[in-house]
Design brief:
single chain, alpha+beta, 8 strands, extended
C-alpha cells in the first residue's frame, strides 16, 4: 500500500471522507429541525444528541464493522495527546488572552510565562512542571471577546468600556 497526498482545492480526491461527512451533517441538520431547537441545556446534552445520531448511522455498518474487528490490533499503552499546548504571558492586569478569550488568573502569576494545555472543554495551566489550576474554556462571543474568571469560573461578555485590552 502506498500513501498518497490530496491536492488542495481538488474536491474529488477526498470523496471517500467528504461524502459520509456531508451525510452526517445533513442528518444532524434534519434531527435539529425535528427537535425544533438548536439550543441545548449543556455540553453533555449536546454530546449525547450527536452520539445518538452517529450511533444510528453506524448501526447500518454493523456487519462490516464486525468483519473488520477480527483484524484490529490492540491500542497502544499510552494515550495520544488530546490537547494543544501553548505558552502565554500573564499581563499586569492578571490575565492572558488565548484564542480571543481573556482569562484572569491569580495576581501572583503576573509577569510569568505559563504553559497552557488547551482541551476542548478546559485549560490546564502549568508553571514549569507544576500544575497551577484548571479553567473552564471560554468561546469568543458574537458581540466581542469573552472574559473568563479563574476565581468564579464564570464568564461575561466584554463591554466597550472594559479596562482590559484583549
Amino acid at each position: 500500500m502506498q500513501p498518497t497526498r490530496n491536492n488542495r482545492g481538488i474536491a474529488h480526491e477526498n470523496g471517500a471522507i467528504e461524502s459520509p461527512h456531508g451525510h452526517l451533517k445533513s442528518a444532524i441538520r434534519d434531527a435539529l429541525l425535528l427537535r425544533g431547537s438548536a439550543e441545548f441545556a449543556d455540553l453533555a446534552t449536546y454530546r449525547s444528541f450527536i452520539d445518538e445520531i452517529v450511533s444510528r448511522i453506524n448501526a447500518r455498518n454493523g456487519k462490516r464493522m464486525q468483519a473488520e474487528t477480527a483484524f484490529l490490533q490492540f491500542l497502544p499503552d499510552t494515550r495520544t495527546s488530546d490537547y494543544e499546548e501553548t505558552r502565554v504571558y500573564v499581563t499586569s492586569t492578571g490575565g492572558f488572552v488565548l484564542r480571543k478569550v481573556f482569562y484572569t488568573v491569580t495576581s501572583r502569576l503576573i509577569g510569568h510565562r505559563i504553559r497552557v494545555r488547551l482541551y476542548d472543554d478546559r485549560l490546564e495551566l502549568f508553571l514549569g512542571g507544576t500544575a497551577l489550576m484548571t479553567l473552564r474554556r471560554g468561546r469568543p462571543g458574537t458581540s466581542g471577546k469573552q472574559v473568563m474568571s479563574s476565581t468564579t469560573g464564570t464568564s461575561s461578555m466584554r463591554c466597550a468600556a472594559s479596562r482590559w485590552r484583549c
